[in-house]
Design a protein that fits this description.
The chain is α/β, with parallel strands linked by helices. It has nine helices and 15 strands. The strands form three sheets. A seven-stranded mixed sheet has the order 9-10-11-12-13-14-15. Strands 1-2-3-4-7-8 form a six-stranded mixed sheet. The longest helix is centred in the C-terminal third of the chain and has 18 residues.
Length: 288
């Protein structure tokens, strides 16, 4: 198995929305905002090369939305999904599997493209199987009012219509994780959105965890630092505590999808609870 970081670009979101009830005077220490109170966030995917399988975890926001839509999110930077794949020697047609942690637009927008010749949306990875789970799919296609703006039907329905959609089975009641592929476990978290999937990858003798929106950045490590976007913030705090306690004890490496500065980090137990231990690049953790 070989892993590659794939940067798909940066965007901006309101700092207050990203930290919920935490005062700006606290969260701005780790995530300084601009004059409009907007903070920069990465959209960092992970590519897993394993035998005949080439799996991409999350796809970023994509490029098919309207100019008005993108004006709300201030996309910037030189990175793109196709550009980073090319640098690694791959093309999107080489991707065999696209694993979607959840179906919010900044995680799955790049899974679908607009075909102008057919005037229709279609999967951007024509040779790939797309992986979600039935519980989250129902949640996303029958959205609550709080998340409706994050679940865009043009990002979701074409996957099913293409026949390329596959299900990760949800664990039985009481279980929080399960093995879904060789070397990859999935932890299911319900605080941010229903049945978000957090991959835990065994790699080079270590556990690498793709944190998605369970932990957007190192600034979110303290338990009360919970996004205003989360549908069940108290549950997020419980899930974060359980997972970060385990991560500190087992020395997991946490891969941060949205942290614009830090690709990876480790955490440690302290008198104040779990806190940041070290932050570093993926290459520093595992070599180029």
């Amino acid at each position: 198995m070989k892993l590659h970081v794939v940067n798909t670009g940066n965007f901006k979101l309101d700092g207050g929305a990203m930290f919920g009830v935490v005062p700006k005077s606290l969260w701005s220490r780790t995530n300084p905002p601009d004059d409009n109170n907007m903070c920069t966030w990465a959209m960092r995917s992970l590519l897993i090369e394993d035998g005949d399988r080439l799996m991409l975890i999350d796809t970023g926001i994509g490029n098919k939305q309207s100019e008005k839509f993108f004006s709300h999110y201030y996309l910037h930077g030189d990175d793109s999904l196709d550009g980073n794949l090319k640098q690694l020697g791959f093309h999107r047609d080489d991707i065999t599997d696209v694993f979607l942690t959840h179906l919010h637009f900044d995680h799955c927008g790049g899974a679908i493209e607009f075909d102008r010749s057919a005037d229709a949306f279609r999967p951007a990875f024509k040779n790939a199987r797309f992986w979600s789970n039935e519980d989250h799919w129902k949640w996303a296609t029958e959205p609550n009012l709080r998340e409706k703006a994050s679940f865009l039907k043009e990002n979701i329905l074409p996957i099913q219509e293409s026949g390329q959609l596959n299900w990760v089975s949800v664990p039985e009641d009481g279980d929080r994780s399960k093995i879904v592929f060789d070397g990859i476990d999935v932890f299911f978290a319900d605080g941010h959105t229903d049945k978000q999937m957090i991959p835990i990858i065994s790699y080079k003798g270590k556990k690498l965890v793709f944190m998605a929106d369970l932990l957007p950045s190192t600034g979110h490590i303290p338990l009360p630092y919970v996004m205003g976007y989360d549908t069940r913030p108290l549950l997020t705090m419980q899930e974060k505590k359980a997972f970060l306690d385990e991560a500190a004890s087992e020395e997991y490496i946490l891969f941060l999808e949205h942290d614009a500065v830090n690709e990876c980090c480790t955490v440690q137990h302290t008198e104040k609870g779990v806190r940041l231990k070290d932050s570093f690049s993926f290459a520093e953790a595992f070599g180029a």
